[in-house]
Amino acid sequence: MSNRSPAATESAAAMRTRLVTTIAVLRSELAKVRRAGRTIGLVPTMGALHAGHLSLAQSSCVECDFTVATIFVNPAQFGPHDDFQRYPRTLDSDLAALASVGVDLVFAPEVLEVYRPEHATYIEMRGPAEPLEGRFRPGHFRGVATVVLKLFNLIQPDRAYFGQKDYQQSLVIRRMVVDLDLPIEIRVCPIVREPDGLAMSSRNAYLTAHEHAQALVLHRSLRRAAEMVAAGERDAKTVLAEIHELFAEVPEVRLQYFVLTDPETLEEVERVDRKTLAAVAAVVGTTRLIDNLVIGP
Amino acid sequence: MSNRSPAATESAAAMRTRLVTTIAVLRSELAKVRRAGRTIGLVPTMGALHAGHLSLAQSSCVECDFTVATIFVNPAQFGPHDDFQRYPRTLDSDLAALASVGVDLVFAPEVLEVYRPEHATYIEMRGPAEPLEGRFRPGHFRGVATVVLKLFNLIQPDRAYFGQKDYQQSLVIRRMVVDLDLPIEIRVCPIVREPDGLAMSSRNAYLTAHEHAQALVLHRSLRRAAEMVAAGERDAKTVLAEIHELFAEVPEVRLQYFVLTDPETLEEVERVDRKTLAAVAAVVGTTRLIDNLVIGP
User: Fold this and answer.
1) How many distinct structural domains can be found in chain A?
2) Which of A118, A122, A126 sits opposite B120 (nearest CB)?
């Protein structure tokens, strides 16, 4: 698990990290791992990896005997006007990065290996899947939950790692695991940010330098809400009014929602008098970004 | 769980059949079985067992090292006007019957052990779940697929056993297993019939003697279709016309559908020139019955 030089990274990729693209090989490789009694950690990704993804992989490598990362841009979770086609694909550098942190196996299948033409089964969720992203991206969590369940069944991990950046997604996955009685521990790892505060996202690659600078208002708004609550403000309306003023100063950033909610139910709160989720979504140029922060007295 | 007779409990104990009602105990018992490297067979039932169920349990006991039968009247698969409340509950005799064929463990949980109040996750299926029962019982297969997936995840069987009587259900389960990459072999066992031809069903207990006699038209219609095809008839319309005449002779039996379909897609066929599913649903008195037969030249 020691840090490796870029040169060593290449040889690690060549020697230690196995790239698998078919379900048949995946199953047979993991059967060996399981027979040896080794614990398996899963890091599901869509590739275009950044330091946030790598922190998940690092946690898995520390906590599990064998770590599988998956790279699959899942068409089922994109809407018809979403960025499925232009989503960044960077397999070579992804493999090198995963090898450098000690990932044992990378599963990177083609779409047809995952969804056969006659695929007919989907996970539908009420409750935590309905508000926020559920409202702005209809069908998104249906696609996420379906592919994650498929990966859980294919890989049968002991633990699976998700980032808090996609806070609602982690709630949806945790709810699914409880509701469907899956014997899997879900680990949610902290948001990794750029030095300027922007939450790491594969979609940050879409931003021009000007848009990147404007996008900082997302994190600024979350910090402003946290500061107001730290200073004693408890009224959600008052906090939200100030946040909306903040966004009004950056009119090119189109706010979709900024909410203060219960961290478990995602129901909006009137008073911030306990642990509260501040969650924000906005469109900068043609790029949709989300961010969140758990705040509270 | 208070209405269990000492006799049934004793005979189950004598046969070494373990009754389990909680998920925690179920998981710990099955972990031992799995650690011992024994294969697990699952027979999911709603209780009120008949010879059809027992044939599934017998197959599992022959083919697997350890057989789990579940008894759970699943509210999610009943519509608001269905017979959830009056569905027969016969736990004592069910346990004795399962013990007599060698079932190792019976999981019979309360509803709240299976569905927590905050349950939000369901399986939705297109394709094979849409026609026939899907049309007459909206939400039925959603409930079936959801509870079967939960049982699969709880028990993690090597094989699971279903009856051909619920032909479409077995297609739905097979589709789900493929689509969600479950490492489970689905076994579909033949319909068991009364000596007079009526397909065994827990709901037959609802029938009066008169209704039972009338209900024989279901099996008679399937045999008639098979005979016509065996005699060279290939035109589906001609077969269906004769079947409708047959039902017209028993006006108290309200036919819901009689179809000739592709056995895999359930799409209706115009010509019976290969293996074809004949499937029928009808209401007799207040009891809804289904039956089917695979026919063809």
Assistant:
1) 2
2) A126
Give the minimum alpha-carbon distance from A117 to chain B in angstroms, rounded to a whole number: 10
Interface-testing mutation among A27, A107, A121, with chain B (most B C-beta atoms within 10 A):
A121
Signed CA dihedral, A219, A221, A222, A223: sign only: positive
| Residue to substitute from A124, A125, A180, A184, interface B, most B β-carbons within 10 A | A180
Which residue is closest to A184 within chain B, CA to CA?
A: B153
- Is A19 part of any domain? yes
Question: In terms of C-beta density within 10 A (0-12 exposed, 13-18 middle, 19 or more buried), how is residue A199 classed?
Answer: buried
Active centre residues of A (catalytic): 53
- Overall pTM surpassing 0.80 (yes/no): yes
- Position of tokens 């063809």? B296
Q: Which domain holds residue B242?
A: 202-295
- Sorted by sequence, the CB contacts under 8 Å of residue B29 that are 6+ apart come out as B18, B20, B105
What is the ipTM score, two decimals?
0.93
Question: Which residues in chain B have their CB less than 8 angstroms from residue A181's CB?
Answer: 23, 150, 153-154
| CB contact at 8 A, B222 and B291 | yes
Q: What is the pLDDT along chain A (297 residues), one digit of tens a residue?
A: 344 444 444 554 455 899 999 999 999 999 999 999 999 999 999 999 999 999 999 999 999 999 999 999 999 999 999 999 999 999 999 999 999 999 999 999 999 999 999 999 999 999 999 999 999 999 999 999 999 999 999 999 999 999 999 999 999 999 999 999 999 999 999 999 999 999 999 999 999 999 999 999 999 999 999 999 999 999 999 999 999 999 999 999 999 999 999 999 999 999 999 999 999 999 999 999 999 999 988
Domain boundary among A134, A163, A189: A189
B99 closest CA partner among B142, B151, B54, B129: B54
A32 in contact with chain B, both atoms CB, cutoff 8 A: no
